[in-house]
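Homework-ish question, so no full write-ups if that breaks the rules, but can someone show me the predicted structure for this set?
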Amino acid sequence: MARNWEEFFIEKILLIAAISSIIIIIAIIGFVVGQGYTALGTIGILNFIFGLIWNPEYGLYGIFPLIIGTLSVVAVSLLFAVPLSILGAMFLAEVAPRTMRRILRPTIQTLAGVPSVIYGFFGLIVLVPFMRTHFGGSGFSILTASLILTVMVLPTILSISEDALRSIPVEYKEASLGLGATHWQTIKNVIFPAAIPGVITGVILGMGRAIGETMAVLMVAGNVPLIPTSILSPVRTLTANIALEMGEATGLHYNALFATGIVLLGIIIILLLIVNWVNYRQRVTIGGGYL
Amino acid sequence: MNRMIPPKYAQKIMNVVFWAVGILAIAILVMVIGYLLYVGLPQVNLTFLFSDPIDNGAAGGIWPSIVSTFYITIVALVVAAPLGVLAAVYLAEYSGENTFVKTIRFATETLASVPSIVFGLFGLAFFVVYLQMGFCILAGGLTLALMAIPTILRTSEVAIETVPQSYKEGSMALGSSKWQTVIRVVIPAAIGGITTGIILGMARAIEETAAILYTVGATTTVPISLFDGGDPLPLHLYTLATEGISLPNAYGTAAVLVILILVITFSTNYLVERYTKKMMGR
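A: Not a homework solution, just the prediction itself:
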């Protein structure tokens, strides 16, 4: 009897630990929305999201330039990162010999583990002067930030894509090779298409990481809250905006920064829902469904 | 299919492309780590590591930062490790696949993807202001704990699920209760993966900057109580670098951080290899 009581209590304690994730995420959403929605009310949601000027000193709280900043930096970095990651994943999953794999995997893991301040610092002391010499301007730009961000999201997209490629049944590959296709033809026309849902998951998660990245972008993107005119213009992202201004923000400014946090949370949750939908569809269509 | 390039040529070209990408990845890592160590290591000596900063960091050492990092990581771990591991035990052993479990998983995924600055906002609004902790190690550590929980949970859950069913059945057949089985058989068998998860969570805590920018304060003294402010290494590096206070000291701080991360990455890899060999050996 005593043992049943003990088991019961233990299971409930474990249950509480398990619910902690739910409690925490609700608390985060709750507090961020709580501190931010007053700003949305005062400024007006449309004015906030589509307002073209961010200048708290003059009471202007339009985050549109910041949204463009985030979008541009993320888009350019994905432009570089997605092809590189997919090629790298194919390399690791299909082509690389054992020794190369044993070097490359830890390399990717280490790249993933480098703190964003380190990337930002490296960008600041190496990449920015380099851009300044070769491309003119201050060196702080969308391009600079995108290059750093590419390196930061590459491990994420690559490892998830690699897992996806590896999970394709070997029969697909053997059938293709048996029909006389080359290895590359097999990868390109059989293995990769079957792994596309997994690759999309990787890309979206990488996108989420890029959107949420703060420190590295802050240190090299230039932090000018204006809509950029070219890839070499300095920008400021949503995340960098919060990080830069939180220290001295009071009143409406303070709430407006939390409202920016609401926008960020919203974007991330939408991306995750898309990922879940993609995975759900893949499970419903048997084994990737291409063939 | 590309009719312009004969398949054999395409194969050869792609081989070159593949190898180029692989080598590029290695080159980037070597370049970043190598350069930072090259300019930073000369700055690092025993005086640098163990003395206090002078003039707000323009001169002197980084001892308070090292203590702050150590302190804040311990706080984060003490909170995150039990929660993460116990939650993983529940998910792996005690529950089925129902809507409740799916909600927990979605919540964990979301938590893992929340931008670090939003964690910082929460830490500020909740720990610093609402709970009135002020800017201190405790507030920063708790914020970091929240970030580490999903990592620890996911890795531990995978580790626990990999424990062979036969272990559990054998234990139950000998008459032990579920909890006894868990604590005496399952967890020890999964300890490799669990430790890896905890170390990875610890790494996240050590390198985080945005989340602690506005929760831990930014003092230049060694924190003593949990309610003192601190200046962990990544934050110190950020301040030195962006306020142009001292480039040599920034290099040194960066080098220390890099070495810390390398040590953690290598030990994780080593542990994982040893653990996999042990499990395969059975």
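Now go work out the reasoning yourself. Hint: Chain A has eleven helices and two strands.
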